[in-house]
């Protein structure tokens, strides 16, 4: 385990350097915005990474709440299997029935519904297999912290991009504003974790994470309605993307993911070790009360 | 065995009776609401044309202030003598307690809103160009959105340091879609545009979060 | 009345109960059985784990590990209507009168009529028609009213945590007398207290705790071997 870390570190360093090179030099210059547009290769992968981390945090939160009770755990497992199966069937049905296919929104493929369902279920079960109930909470705090960092990058690169291009620091565009709200929710999550007494922290934080996850679609939708009524410039580029740019984007995302993994791994190890120390101290207090510090 | 609705009603009646008796707290809240409106009037010059456009936002920010002060008092009486222990030990379901507190807060905040609204209308010379009855729906849905999550987070704050700052700190980010909905709906009605889609948003928000609160309240109440 | 030949099942069974608050182990593996119809005095220094044990029995704490069985049930909530709990804070609303308080808590237990409230208040030696809010009571009156609240649902098991704390001697002895009568009627009572002398003659057994463990059980007030 420990040997893999430096190897991954070197690999990540190489990937990041290469990604930097392709982003700044190899990628074609954008027509209207010029070189400023290259910030896109930092803005978008950071956002995707942050969302992925927050998604994992949400699953960790649900698992923490559910797995403490065996009957709830069972219900949850079956619910997820059902979700995966139902979404796949829904995808098939929509793809086959022309009337339903017409009714889908323009950019959404029918198969994406099934894929999403399966991915959510798969992520749930993978996490469930590799993390015990206590470890799941350590995973939650890790992904929340690293997620907030990446989210901050998104919120900083957004205005840095918007200012030279549109002359304004902030646009109330859907994705940027949703990211801001997500950032606010997770910062409040971290503050809650710090301010609550240690026995109750995992439960309360998990409850807040669930609330946050329920909030996200509502945030997105509410800002989307607002924007259709008050149109604003879109940060992050809409519409189709040149394949050469897509290549660079994915390269950067891969590098960011490796970096995120590295940071999460360190943070997670730190958290687990901290908990092991606490458990050892608790065990000591259990066996020898008079020598333990009160 | 006790019925859940019976307990909600009994708890609500008890809380209302206690609020009525300790008129000090109620009176100071009412006066605070009045102050908020006056301060806003000085800070945001109510020139007739602009006022109608920003009034939607102003009035809801003022309501939010008042709501936070009221919500921080949710458990004040229970904390004093650890009454919550007596509740947890009894067979009464936790959700009955939650609903009673949320409804109580809803009533209290609505009273504050009912006091602040005429003052806003007077200071800002407001006239609704759209249907007024829709404003009542927006007020109800919006207030419930703040109060249901506020009561839940007030319960979470019981177990944290800096209790009074924890409540708004948790409530504001989560409430952003609802706040946007309330403000936009109110503004739309005041300037005579359609608010249907915003009302739909508020309704969805209320349904989603009322469910979430009811599902998770017992867990949070009994977290130790 | 308990017949020595009839074996009634133990009302409380605790098996290797461990409760940790972070690094501090409040209960370090408590194992004991308690039979019904007895008044137990739980004694020990501060930090011995008495309150933690009582709160765990009352379902207010989840054990870190170990088993607790109360009135035959693993989950407290299954038998909560047969348990009464009282602590050093009054668990009452300061702004209401005693009777109003009890009438509210009666509803939590599904007791429809107010006669139980009046009975309970009279049983603890207070006046049911007193309109003074509980916040203005003396400590003795307040603890008596709190006991009335605990007795409201006619519980089989009473859990009392420091009921005599800061209470005048007259109220305290009255309460002990009431508890004796309650025990004689077949109820099981646990009293955590620092004022062991009050229970002398009334308690069936004294349970001595130290550093999160039960170190001995005696019939009289002589501490067992190894106690501080």
Over the alpha carbons, how many angstroms does the gyration radius of chain A reach?
A: 22 Å
| Relative helix content of chain C | 25-40%
Structural class of chain C: alpha/beta
Instruction: Please tell me how large the radius of gyration of chain C is.
Output: 17 Å
β-strand number of chain A: 0
- If you average the pLDDT of chain C, what whole number results? 90
Q: Quaternary arrangement of the chains shown?
A: heterotrimer
Helix/strand-derived category of chain A reads mainly alpha
Shape of chain A: globular
Helix content of chain A: over 70%
Low-confidence stretches of chain C: none
**SS strand fraction of chain A:** under 5%
| Biggest interchain interface, per-side counts | A-B, 30 and 31 residues
Query: How would you characterize the largest beta sheet of chain A?
Result: none
H-E order of chain A: HHHHHHHHH
Sequence of strands across the biggest β-sheet of chain C: 5-6-7-3-8-9
Average pLDDT figure of chain A: 87
End-to-end distance of chain C, in Å? Answer: 36 Å
Write down the overall geometry of chain C. globular
Encode the helix/strand succession of chain C as letters: EEEHEEHHHEHEEE
What is the tally of helical segments of chain A?
9
Layout of strands and helices, then pairs:
The complex is a heterotrimer of chains A (294), B (224) and C (228).
Chain A: H1 4-26, H2 40-67, H3 70-96, H4 98-103, H5 110-130, H6 133-166, H7 174-195, H8 201-229, H9 243-287
Chain B: H1 4-21, H2 23-43, H3 48-71, H4 76-80, H5 83-89, H6 94-124, H7 132-157, H8 163-190, H9 196-221
Helix pairs in contact in B: 1-6, 2-3, 2-6, 3-6, 3-7, 3-8, 6-7, 6-9, 7-8, 7-9, 8-9
Chain C: E1 12-21, E2 24-34, E3 39-44, H1 50-57, E4 65-70, E5 83-86, H2 98-108, H3 115-123, H4 139-151, E6 157-161, H5 169-184, E7 188-192, E8 205-210, E9 213-218
Parallel strand pairs in C: 3-7, 3-8, 5-6, 6-7
Antiparallel strand pairs in C: 1-2, 1-4, 8-9
Helix pairs in contact in C: 2-3, 3-4, 4-5
């Amino acid at each position: 385990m420990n040997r893999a870390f430096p190897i991954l570190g070197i690999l990540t360093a190489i990937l990041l350097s290469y990604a930097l090179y392709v982003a700044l030099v190899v990628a074609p210059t954008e027509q209207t915005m010029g070189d400023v547009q290259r910030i896109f290769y930092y803005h978008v992968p950071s956002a995707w990474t942050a969302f992925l981390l927050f998604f994992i945090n949400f699953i960790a939160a649900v698992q923490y709440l559910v797995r403490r009770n065996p009957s709830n755990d069972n219900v949850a497992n079956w619910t997820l299997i059902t979700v995966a199966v139902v979404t796949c069937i829904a995808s098939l049905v929509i793809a086959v029935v022309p009337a339903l296919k017409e009714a889908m929104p323009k950019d959404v493929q029918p198969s994406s519904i099934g894929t999403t369902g399966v991915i959510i279920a798969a992520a749930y079960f993978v996490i469930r297999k590799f993390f015990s109930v206590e470890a799941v909470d350590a995973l939650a705090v890790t992904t929340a912290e690293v997620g907030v960092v990446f989210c901050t990058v998104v919120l900083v690169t957004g205005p840095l991009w918007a200012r030279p291009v549109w002359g304004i620091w902030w646009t109330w565009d859907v994705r940027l504003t949703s990211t801001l709200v997500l950032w606010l929710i997770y910062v409040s999550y971290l503050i809650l974790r710090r301010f609550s007494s240690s026995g109750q922290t995992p439960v309360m934080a998990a409850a807040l994470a669930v609330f946050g996850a329920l909030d996200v679609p509502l945030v997105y939708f509410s800002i989307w309605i607002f924007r259709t009524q008050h149109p604003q410039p879109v940060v992050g580029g809409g519409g189709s993307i040149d394949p050469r740019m897509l290549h660079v984007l994915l390269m950067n995302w891969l590098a960011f993911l490796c970096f995120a993994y590295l940071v999460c791994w360190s943070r997670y190890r730190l958290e687990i070790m901290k908990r092991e120390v606490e458990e050892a101290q608790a065990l000591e207090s259990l066996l020898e009360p008079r020598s333990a510090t009160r | 065995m006790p019925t859940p609705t019976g307990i909600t009603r009994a708890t609500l009646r008890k809380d209302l009776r206690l609020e009525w008796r300790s008129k000090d707290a109620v009176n100071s809240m009412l006066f605070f609401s009045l102050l908020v409106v006056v301060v806003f009037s000085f800070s945001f010059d109510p020139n007739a044309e602009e006022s109608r456009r920003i009034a939607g936002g102003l009035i809801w920010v003022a309501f939010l202030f008042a709501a936070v002060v009221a919500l921080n008092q949710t458990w004040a009486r229970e904390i004093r003598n650890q009454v919550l222990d007596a509740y947890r030990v009894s067979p009464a379901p936790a959700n009955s307690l939650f609903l009673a507190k949320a409804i109580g807060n809803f009533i209290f905040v609505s009273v504050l809103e009912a006091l602040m609204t005429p003052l806003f209308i007077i200071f800002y010379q407001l006239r609704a160009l759209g249907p007024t009855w829709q404003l009542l729906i927006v007020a109800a849905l919006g207030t419930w959105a703040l109060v249901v999550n506020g009561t839940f987070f007030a319960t979470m704050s019981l177990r944290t340091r800096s209790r009074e700052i924890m409540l708004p700190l948790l409530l504001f980010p989560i409430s952003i879609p609802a706040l946007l909905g309330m403000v936009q709906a109110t503004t739309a009605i005041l300037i005579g545009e359609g608010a249907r889609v915003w009302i739909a948003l508020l309704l969805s928000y209320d349904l989603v979060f009322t469910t979430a609160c009811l599902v998770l309240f017992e867990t949070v109440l009994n977290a130790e | 009345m308990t017949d020595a030949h009839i074996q009634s099942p133990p009302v409380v069974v605790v098996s290797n109960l461990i409760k940790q608050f972070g690094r501090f182990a409040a209960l370090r593996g408590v194992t004991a059985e308690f039979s019904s119809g007895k008044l137990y005095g739980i004694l020990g220094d501060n930090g011995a784990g008495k309150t933690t044990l009582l709160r765990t029995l009352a379902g207010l704490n989840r054990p870190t590990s170990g088993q607790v069985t109360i009135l035959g049930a693993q989950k407290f909530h299954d038998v909560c209507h047969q348990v009464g709990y009282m602590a050093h804070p009054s668990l009452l609303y300061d702004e209401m009168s005693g009777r109003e308080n009890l009438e509210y808590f009666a509803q939590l237990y599904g007791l429809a009529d107010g006669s139980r409230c009046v009975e309970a208040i009279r049983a603890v030696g207070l006046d049911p028609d007193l309109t003074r809010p509980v916040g203005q009571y003396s400590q003795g009156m307040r603890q008596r009213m709190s006991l009335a609240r605990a007795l409201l649902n006619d519980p089989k098991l009473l859990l009392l945590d420091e009921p005599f704390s800061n209470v005048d001697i007259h109220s305290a002895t009255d309460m002990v007398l009431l508890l004796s009568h309650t025990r004689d009627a077949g109820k099981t009572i646990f009293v955590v207290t620092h004022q062991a002398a009050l229970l002398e003659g009334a308690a069936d057994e004294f349970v001595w705790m130290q550093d999160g463990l039960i170190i001995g059980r005696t019939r009289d007030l002589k501490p067992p071997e190894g106690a501080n």
